[in-house]
Structure formats: structure tokens, C-alpha cells
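2024-03-11 09:14:02 INFO receiving multi-entity request
2024-03-11 09:14:02 INFO entity count = two
2024-03-11 09:14:03 INFO echoing inputs for audit
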Amino acid sequence: MDWPITAWRAARPSPPDAAPDPAVHKPFALVERTTHGLILHALNPAAHALGLKLHQSHADACAIVPELASAPADPVEDAKALRRLAGWMERYSPFVSLDPSPGGLEGLFLDLTGGQHLFGGEAAMARAMLASLERLDVPARIAVADTPGAAWALARHGDATLTLAPEGEAKTALAALPVAALRLDASAIQLLNRFGLRRIGALATLPRAALARRFQDAQALNVLQRLDQALGTLPEPLTPVTAPTVYRVQRVFAEPMTNLEAVAIEAAALTERLALALERDGVGARRLHLTGFRVDGRTTGLDVRLAAASRRAAHLLRLFRDKGFEHLDLGFGIDALALTASVTEPLHARQTSTLADADQANAAARDALVDRLSARLGDGAVLAAHLAESWLPETAETLGPYASRSETPPDPAVGTRPILLFDPPEPIEAVAELPDSAPARFTWRRVARRVLRSSGPERLAPEWWKAAGGCKPKRTRDYYRVEDDQGGRYWVFREGLYDGGDVDPPPSWWMQGLFA
Amino acid sequence: MPSPSPLPEACSVLSRRFDAAAFAPVAGLEEVCVGDAAGMAAGLGFLAARVRSEPRLVAFVAPRFWFTERGRPYAYGLKALGIAAERLLVVTPRTETEALWAMEEVLRSGAASLAVGAVETASLVATRRLDLIARGANAAAALVRATPQTGLSAARRRWRLGPAPSAPHPFDLRASGAPRWRAVLERSRDGAHGEALLEYDDETFRLHLVDGLADHGLAGGASVAA
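2024-03-11 09:21:47 INFO inference complete, emitting structure
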């Protein structure tokens, strides 16, 4: 139950023949360094039994119990380990949250509403949870109740390791518990004890105004709020670790699965069920996650994105296959498999367009093709032309991801453009007869070429409305179409004007593209 | 694909050993060997010009470093060939195996009418698969390379393409006119082979065979509609 100690033990695999684990039998503590020196951060049951208390100074504890063993505490790693466990506990419920109260970073809240029948009832579910946690060597106490407050109280201060409060009976279940079970701070508990109110049952029967008057301001509200939350009259919202999705299908296996082919077959069945759920609501999925819950308390998953919403089961399964099931790290086997669609879009909106049937089929085939290529090669490998409002050739059209291209591109009137573009342009050495004319000879990639025919110039000024970035100021370009004696047709430009005052550095020549 | 008209009998002494049907795009695999960068532009132009009239995608499969060496496809340049910018799809795999897989996927989906791949080494099995898939999808597949193919290949036609001095411009003596390419058909399934000079007219989007006359006029009646 002391999570830091459990996490510490889990992080250290013990060799088979070593001395018995110090954390189990002998008194053991995790110490934390603070401004007041070393204090005890966590204790194991043996240390508790010997009378040590949390946040006691380490020196005092060693004086009381000389054989106390200790190790440095690592709260950051403990929190991370708890999050991992929370992710694994999602196999029981999609709504798992960490305990937000201070000093309570050792607990998890699971919202079991609606899912009990999958596991055979609340009692069977709680017993299965306890058994699986025990298999992971995590000592746990579980309480199932109507409200998070009541469950917290019963888990920490109840009698048994597994408590099930019957529905609607929160008041009677909590009556015998001490007041500290209400998540109040130490001064409030002290005050209540001084009044002789040691049990929650006594507290609940008092008139509320009288109770509030005994405390000061915020503390009064806090006491009443916690009481109401435990009894269910005030709601207590929890934030889950991962946002729950509406479309989620999962399957629990009798035995852990270690075979990737079997995982593929089960994933196929899950996509069929998910497709049915999506079709029922008229939506298509844009993003899917396949999560496998391993037996050692971790999760492994695959993530797939789609360019256009789809709910065809065959297509979704094909995307997972192209991504590769071998990217799943099964460890010692997985107990359960879950498929969620985290981003969905109404599907009918795409189908009511004015395209003809053949075009529609073509568009669907194109989107499916892009999905398959992106799943195997990565998102940045499938590119389309993005047209922009700019007259510099390398910015007027760029190659960007296919999914984010705009449907109606701008259509500026441009002159003849080459079929292949060099971005960035390559420098060439050129000699022109007159300052304003096309080059007569140029050398590109160390091959000297002689120009037979040329046309131009096409003058493109720098875009003055864009902020000048970088150290080099942009200069006017004069583009020429030149053809050499072999027939190669090039698009070269001179950057800078000879009579425009561009002296330092002098105008230079560059190769921008090749014509067909 | 429309069937072009044969050469008139009077020009038979000047006609090549194969007629214009050899240039028409056919569903299947073709291999194009280009020399340098300018030849690559000519090759792309030749391949793309022939599939202009179909509304499907034109896909280009090449690794990323290929673009810095040879230049990247430019949509405004394809507009001159009559292909809209939204028809261009560029796929950048990391290895040649992935490139061949991507070409197969593109062809199999039926969403593309032309798939051009910059793959240097393709085995006989890989080319045979590409040919079959292209035939099944009624699309043209082409592998462009810089060095001639030495091994066996299942391509229907094997071209060597390069630029040629362009036609004279009708209004400007110094400018270059319609682009011309020298196409050598090295090997073909139906036995045709030979060399020809092609000219592309971007107003009518037609490929013409150029005559061997002194002023390089056009051979009457021998043209391929793209």
C-alpha cells in the first residue's frame, strides 16, 4: 500500500539467491532530503509497527530503531510508475484517474459505471482486480462504493482488503470510520477530536449550521464539502488520466496472448465491432489506437491516422497491418486488447457533394491510397502540391503533406514554368554579353554549356510585404529561359540588377529549373 | 487510348521503322533511361504528356535526396502539359524496396493513371509484378533511371530519352519554340525499335513525329493525341 516502497521494489529486480528483501520483513524507510534535513517519506509495515511515523526526522527514527534500513526516495519516478499502472488499469474501465488529494498520490479512482456486467458483477470485478494486482506484486486495498469520497474512506480506513458498500448505504458504511477518512487536513481533524467527534457517524447527525460555525471560513466549507461528497449529495468530478472516448471496443482473453498472428486476428474482430458502432452513429474515424494490456502492468499500442474519415472495417484493418503489428511489444503476453477511435467526423458530410459517381469513387480510392501509404511510410512521405499566393517560384508552390492541402487552391496567372525545380537554386557561373541580356555561356555542375537560344527576362521583384528575414536582403530576379546546343532547356536567373545599385555583393547567377 | 492515323504512303521512304502507335501510352510497365538532369526533365515531360486527358492522379515515387539532386516536380510546370496541380502526388520512401512497394500500391488502387518511379535496380520479378498490376488497373507505370538497364526486365518497352534542339519559335528568332525530344526505342514486346524525334505542341497538347527534312518539318498525319 505504501506506493513509494512498492515502486522502489518493482524497480529493482532481486536476484534469486540474495538475502531476503529488506523492505519486506525488516523495518525499511525511504528518506527524502528537505530544508530541515532528511525526513521519512515512506515506511513499510514493520517500521509502522515499531512506532515510526511519516515525516519524522531520519536521525530521530534511527535513534528509536537502530536497525532501520533506508534508501533515497524518488517522488518523480513514483509518480511516473503510478501513471503507468493507471494506464494498465484501463483494462477494467476507461475512466481511471489519479487521486488528487495531497498526500494521496498512492491511489487510483476507477469509474466502474456501466462496465460491471462485462466482468460478471462488481464483486467479481473487484476480486479480479485484486488478484491481478497481487500477481504484479502490488499490495492493494480496494473499495467499491457510490461516491469517490466513500470509496476513499473505505479503502484506507476500512477493515478488509476488499470492501463493497451496497448501493445507497453509504451513510451506514461510513458511520464507523474515523473522521480522518474524510480527507480533511490535520488542524480540522484535531479540532473535531477536541469536540469529541471521532467517528463520521457522529458528524453526520449534527446540524450543519452548528458545525460550520465552529470552524473558520474556508475550513468550514471544506468540512461540509467533504462530508457531502462522501455521502453523495455533492458531486465530485474527476479528471481521467486519458480522455475517455465514446467509441471503444475491447476484448479480454482467458490466457495471455504471445502470438502476433493471434493479435492480428483479434484486431480484425475488434475493427468489425468498431465499424458497427461507428455506422450506428453515422460517423467515421480519423484516428485509431490499438492498446494491448500486458501481464506485467504495462501497455503497448499502435496509432493510425486517416486522411479522410472512414468506417470500412477492411480498410481500417489494412492500415494497422501496413503499420505493422510487429511494432507491438507483447512482453510476456497481453491479457486484453482495446480499440478506440479518438477522433471521429460525421461521415455523411463528405458524401453529399456534387461530384459524379466516377469522380467520387476516384476520390475515395485516392484517400484510401494515401492512408495506406502514410501508414507504412510515415506521415511526411506522401506529398502533394500546396499552392500559395506568392510569385517567387519556390514559395508559390511547395510540396507538403497530402492531408493538409486546401481544396480550392489559388490560381495566379504565371508565365511558362519548368517541370523540375531546384529548391534551393544552384549557383552557376554565367557570362552575358550585355548587363541586361541572357547569358551567352554558363557553367553548371562543372559542365560548360553554350547558349544557342534564350528568351526573357521575366522580372520578379522581392515581396515587399513580407518582413525581410535573415541577413541577406532579397533582390530582384531576372529569369531567362535558355537552351544550349544539346537541346537542354534551363531556367536561370540573375539575382540583383547591375544598374540598380546592387554592388556589394555583385549580382549572381543561379539555376532554378529544367524545362521538359 | 485513341489509335493514331498511320503515315501516308508517299512518305514511306522517310517513315521510321515504327509508326506513331509505338508512342501511345499503353497500360503496363515501361523503362526510360535518361542521361543527366536535363534528360530527366525530358523524360518526365514525355511520360506526363501522354496521360493528360485522364482525370486520375499522376504519381511520382522517389526518395527525398533525389529531389535535391535532380529537382522536384513543379505543379505549375505540369500545368503547361495540361495536368492540373491537384493531380500530382509525390511519395518519398526511404529505400528502393519501399519505392517498389509504393508503386505497386499506387497502381493497384486504381487512383492513378501514371506512376513514375526513380528506381535504379529492379529485378525481373519486381518488374513483372509492376507490369501485371499496371495492366490490371489500366494505368501506365514507368521506371526512370540514369544508367542503362543491364539485367532482364519484364518491361513492355525500353526507351532512351534525351532533349533535342527545339523547334524554331514562330515569332521570335532568338527564343526556343516547341520542345523536342530524341526518343530511342531500344526494345519492345512487339518487335518495334528505332529512333525518332518528337515534338510537343502545348497548345493542342499533341506529340508530333518530326520529319527528317532539312527544316525539320512535321511528318504529315503522324501524331499522337495526348
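2024-03-11 09:21:48 INFO post-check: Chain A touches chain B through 51 residues (CB under 8 Å).
2024-03-11 09:21:48 INFO post-check: The longest helix of chain A spans residues 260-281.
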